[in-house]
Amino acid sequence: MNFKHTRSVVAMAVLAAMTATSAHAGGLERGGYNIDLLFDPSAYALEATTTYVNPQRDLKNGRDTNPANGLGADGRGGGSTSTRDTESYWVPRVGIKAALGDSGIDCMADYSQPFGAYTNPGRNWIGANDNTKTKIETDNYAVTCSYKWAMGPGKIRVIGGGFYQEVNGFKERLVAPNFYGTGNGIGRLDLEANGWGGRVGLAYEIPEYAFLTSLVYNSEVKFDDIEGTIDLSEVRVPGPLGPTRPIQFGKYDISGEASVPQSLEYKIQSGIAPDWLAFGSIKWTDWSVLQSVAFCPATASPLTPCTSLDLLYRDGLTVTAGVGHKFNDQWSGAVSLTWDRGTSTVINAQSDTWTLGTGVAYKPVENVEFRLAGAVGILTSGSSRSTTINGVPFGSNVSYDYGNDVVTAVSTSLKVRF
Fold first, then answer.
1. In Gene Ontology terms, what is one molecular function of this protein (predicted)?
2. CATH 2.40.160.60 fits 4-417, yes or no
3. CB neighbours (10 Å) of residue 418?
4. What's the pTM value of the predicted model, to 2 decimals?
5. Which residues contact 45 (CB under 8 A, 6 or more apart)?
6. Which candidate, 357, 354, 344, 410, places its Cα nearest to that of 383?
7. For the segment 345-359, what is each residue's pLDDT rounded down to a tens digit?
């Protein structure tokens, strides 16, 4: 039984469903890396995708657990004990693929934003001493190629490539309550960095059975020279003459180092009946490489202190399974279920996620495809508490709980073959 045409039509809906479900995962992941365009059977293809994600994580039962820097949002125990922690975001991706004649070599170039974070509990959150707003964004520019040759009933591919990645972000929190002068007490960390990474992989495909399996490793990206600033110009503390002459901190340069983790992903899809395709994937991501990331000036002092981003992540694991169906030569659909293991351990609110995704693909003419997908997921419940590791306290500013919350996503894409 020949499933070749089934793959070419249904695979588009499969990709749509998986794009929507992968846009909110553990750690800092926003879909991660994607090289599916490399396997497009056409000689040339251009693809553009955008995904809107709305995670609705709510924190509750908040309690300021560190009176040393003032209690609550005002230093006196005030502030809300519950808040919406997350903000919605967009995830774009653009790629182009080309086959180099009959050489068996295919190459693709793409731009994406694979990682990021956006939390905004606000300045009235009782845990303002821990976080009022944090935003991290990445830009990734990649080139990936493969060489394929006949082996058995199908073809085997060797895959290799590299990518350049930029990261920037900031974090704001209440450093000291607004008791003195006009300062609002908010300190801000800004940072930026860039680095290089690479990928290798192996794939095997049998078009007759719509069969494709791949194993791809993406390397760690080391940011050995993160640069940025700490701005404490809005922070006032008592001076030697008391509150009438407060000490005003300033703005100073800092540096640090961190890594975006390595990952290993296995994917498989196959025709299982006329016009039906089954698919699945499993991905491991080394998020435990991100524990506590320190940022310090050249010389630390009471007026120019260090700071850190405390994550204490564990490794991530993402498993997806689903089916796709071709309704006719123009329309196809797919449905998938994804489980993502939460990367938070004792602190923070990244718990396990279950996501149901659906996607449809429409092919009005031979060389043009439109895809639309949606996803709805459950962010499971948990809590964040202080802990001590090797004598160092973490999460000591605030404790809180979170229930079973909802995440939704909508994705659209356009592919043109020529």
1. long-chain fatty acid transporting porin activity
2. yes
3. 9
4. 0.93
5. 37, 96, 97, 415, 416, 417, 418
6. 344
7. 999 999 999 999 999
